[in-house]
Write a structure and sequence with these properties.
With about 130 residues, the protein is mostly helical. It is about 65% helix and about 0% strand.
Length: about 130
Amino acid sequence: MNGDEAAERRHEAASWMRIAREDLRVARACLSLDPPARGVAAYHCQQAAEKLVKGLLVAASTYPECRDLLDSVRTLTVWGFAYRYPGTEDISEPVPGEVELRRTIDLIERPGERLQAAAAPTDTGVPH
């Protein structure tokens, strides 16, 4: 991979992270409503985790320190649809509580910040 390709991958990974941060912001906002919109917050947690994983894949780097995160967000798949569509009442997945949602937001945020730092362009001293 040449320097231009690496820079392009870093840029795309950073773009995925920007969208993931927005999903986390919306998840937090949902929890601040009265009453909290926990199902919608869960959906946005799942979406943020998905975008984080996409950012990691685009970066095409190994992130062994993120293995625990990737294993833990795998269970969020059901959050992507269980609380968002009619006819899903038969899904036995209970809406997560506020404590679980806040813990999940934090869990997604930490490696997301590391990916963002890794995806940031490095200053090579060469003008762009």
